[in-house]
Amino acid sequence: MISQWSLLLTTAVAVVEEVEEKGKLFDFDATLPLMMIQLVVLVLVLDALFYKPLGKVLDDRADYIRGGLGEAKARLAEAEELKTKYETELAQTRREANTVIATAKADAQKIAAGQIAETQQAAQVQREQAQQEIDKQKQSAFAALEPQIEALSRQILTKLLGAELVK
To answer: Are 149 and 161 in contact (CB under 8 A)?
Structure first.
């Protein structure tokens, strides 16, 4: 029985060793450190040839964008300042133009009122002169007609009353 047990035990140990060798996930001989070294070399090569230049390009691009944004903000602020300045100047110019227009209108109204008054005065003077002329002509006409009226009146009286009563 001991021999059976020993045979069984040796067979079991052999089977377990055989199963252990077939079921191994990793082979821990010299290939594992070699694979690790290859991985590290690959990472270093990729870092030197790909990641650093790519990172540099991305950093340069980010710096360029930041610079462009900063410059754009500065130009926008400058444009806003110019816009505000020009709007202020435009408003001031409009106020000045409105003042000049109002002054010109007032001056034109004064000139027009003065010319109207002057024309009315001249018309009044002409009317008075015409009235005086008419009055003079009327008086001269009456003066010229007075002897004729008197002569006609005498003739009428003479005819009506007779020559003896009219003297």
So the answer is: no
Query: Helices in the chain by DSSP H: which ranges?
Result: 2-22, 31-46, 52-161
Q: Is the dihedral of CA 103, 107, 110, 112 positive or negative?
A: negative
Give the residue ranges of the chain where pLDDT is below 50: none
- Paired tokens of 74: 């500065």
Structure-token match 């230049």, residue found: 53
Q: What is the DSSP letter of 29?
A: S
The pLDDT, as a whole number, for residue 106 is: 93
Tokens 């040796």 belong to which residue?
10
| pLDDT of the residue at 148 | 82
Distance CA 98, CA 103 (A): 8
Q: How far apart are CA 161 and CA 54, in angstroms?
A: 150
Cα–Cα distance for residue pair 150/139, rounded to 1 Å: 16
Identify the pLDDT of residue 77. Answer: 93
**In this structure, what token pair is assigned to residue 142?**
């009456």
Question: What's the predicted TM-score (pTM) here?
Answer: 0.43
